[in-house]
Amino acid sequence: MAVFPRRRLAAVALTAATALLVTAGCGGGDEPGDGTVTLTVDVFGQFGYEQLYQEYMDAHPGVKIVERGTGTNLDEYSPKLTQWLAAGRGAGDVVAIEEGLLVEYKANPANFVNLLDHGAADLKGNFLEWKWNAGLTADGKHLIGLGTDVGGIAICYRKDLFEKAGLPTERDAVSKLWPTWPDYIATGERFTAAKTGASFLDAATNTFNTILLQTAGNTTGYSYYDTSDNLVVDSNPSVRQAWDTTMDIIDSGLSGKYGSWSEEWVSAFKQSKFATIACPAWMTGVIEANAGPAAQGKWDIARVPGNGGNWGGSHLAVPKQSKHQAEAIELAKFLTSAKGQIGAFQAKGPLPSSPQALDDPVITGATNAYFSGAPVGAIFGTGAKSLKPVYMGPKNQAVRTEVENAVRTVELGQRNPTQGWADAVTNAKKAAAK
Amino acid sequence: MTVQLDARPPVAPKADNPHRSSGRLSRLDTRFSPYLYIAPFFLLFAVFGVYPLAYTFWVSLHDWDLLGAEHPFVGAENYTRLLADADFWHALVNTLGIFVISTVPQLLAALWLANLLNRGLRARTGWRMAVLVPNVTSTAAVAIVFGVIFGREFGMINWLLDLVGLDAIGWKSNRFASWVAISAMVDWRWTGYNALILLAAMQAIPRDLYESASIDGANRTRQFWSITVPLLKPTIIFCAIIATIGGLQLFTEPRLFHSGTNPIRGGPMRESQTLTMYMFENAFAPHYNFGYGSAVAWLLFALIAIVAAVNVLLLRRLGGGNRPEKKAAR
């Protein structure tokens, strides 16, 4: 009787303590312990690095590379990355950052390794000048990311649907159909009149973004924010012009209204429900992944109406929280080298941001079998070196979301263009203030 | 046994020192052991309940950029801005709307199902297990499947509507239609669960009540409304409270119902954005404003507390009035 209660007390205390320990000690090491270093690479969409990882691992026997997030869309990827950074753990050793978000991350450079401290300055010549500068903080002292790709724009189209509609199918002839956006709309009207059962384009939002970045690149050099970070949604003529052209497209009934990146959008690819899509170089990999092998050879690529343009492109960065910074920096340098960029282009189509890679015969002479052997190197590469970058302001992503949503409400018939524009401006201002 | 135990104390504790200390220990034991036994729950509650609540409140008083290094104190500014935020009220109406049109039919259907299961069916256990199956499936899978069924272009429902010559419905871009679609998901998942709880309560109702009712000539419907439902009231209210808490925190179904660009809005015009989605939109992508998001979380907490209090009041009012039948029956 004397001993029993004491032991029971102890047992209770022990149980309570164990319960706490079990719940608190959920972390723990993840290294295999045999000397290998596992590097995690976080990407979204299609980066085309698989082959490069293999090469790198063969050359570095102590390194194992794991990629996460292939096929994820940017809207799902960016909150995760931000949460990992804010929490101080969870992010990969190398992370991809899209140009529109880079501005937000640049505001807090302490989250990332300063690549200038690790010999990155020598690599400057490997990148287009503006692409290099985009990875630098405003004071130029901190390099957050090395450029991977840029987004030269074209129009990808379905040859079989064009043929059904009695339009030319050969890529040069197709390019001649639409020197300007009004010509593109006129072609779309011819296509629609032929009643093929498919829409002319996938979603007005993608086309809107293409037109905006093209117009802005050719004129002001900025879109929603001016270079002093003032919100100029309602006063920048580029935004208004892109809006009006998009309204004409919607008004002509050309859009299939398949919300970009939605499940319906993916189904529409598979079921051949639209004939054209605004096509930055990286989109070719997305099309191939969504439309699948059955559509091989049915797609082709023509030039974009208007004059050139740049949409998208990413950087690779190394978060400070990485436990293997040195190895991660080496890997990032390898993946963004001219050789790495060429390899990614060959795998999934993102256009190199390295002038050396752009001049390489592998790129200039590249064709893409999925897109009926289109000379993708010549189509996207020509003019890539003279691409005019568009400046992105601090809340670019949030503002862009609001404006694209306004486009979508008009596309779905929920608002008329006047109401839609009013929404776009009000909501953009609200988002910028948050 | 009892006699022996009663007999022992006067002798044993006074015998020697170790025994005396053991007496103190056992008094301590009786006094504090129960607290120690329940301590794990309260410690866990403190760590995972109270601390996050307090921390969220602390965050909500700051201008807290998720990635920022500085978090200046702004007092109640987040709250005042939030109360003037039309999107917040819009999300509140959505949440309550979805809650009402999902909970009411859900509880009625559960009651009906429970009543069916309470009868002498063949393979009764099988049926009872079957109603719980939807609850076991993953919410994500349910939401994705329903998202496909309610698709605008390739969805099954619109295809059926087309077959009977009706216009397709924009299930994701029409506010009320999207509420209905999401409610269907919630109901599909939770009706069986509630039915089983109601069934358990139904089985506790004494059979003799029904027997005497039959002798008095009451038919099944009459018995159901005059005996079953009144005696089930406390259980029904319990189900309603559980549904309230779940309903006001609805997130996964509406979030996964929408795919594509920025699905956290619940449609281009926030047709089915619930409060938890609005909280997420502000705390995380695309705004990363942790302070504002935390303020939404606290107002949601207050809302749930209010609705739960209303439920408790209802419970008190309805709880007492249902015994007379029982007395009368005896």
TrEMBL record, chain A:
Residues spanning the signal sequence: 1-24
Keyword tags: Signal
Keyword Cell membrane: no
SUPFAM superfamilies xrefs: Periplasmic binding protein-like II
Keyword Nucleus recorded: no
Coiled coil: none
Top-level taxon of origin: Bacteria
InterPro entries registered for this protein in UniProt: Bact_solute-bd_prot1, SBP
Pfam families on file: SBP_bac_8 (PF13416)
Transmembrane segments: none
Protein's UniProt name: Cellobiose transport system substrate-binding protein
Organism: Micromonospora violae
TrEMBL record, chain B:
Chain ranges of the ABC transmembrane type-1 domain: 92-311
Spans traversing the lipid bilayer: 35-58, 88-117, 129-150, 231-251, 295-315
Keyword Transmembrane helix: yes
Main subcellular location: membrane
Family matches, as PROSITE patterns: ABC_TM1
Region (Disordered): 1-24
Pfam family membership, one: BPD_transp_1
Localisation per UniProt entry: Cell membrane
A Gene Ontology cellular-component term: plasma membrane
PANTHER family: ABC TRANSPORTER PERMEASE PROTEIN, INNER MEMBRANE ABC TRANSPORTER PERMEASE PROTEIN YCJO
Protein name as annotated: Cellobiose transport system permease protein
Organism lineage: Bacteria, Bacillati, Actinomycetota, Actinomycetes, Micromonosporales
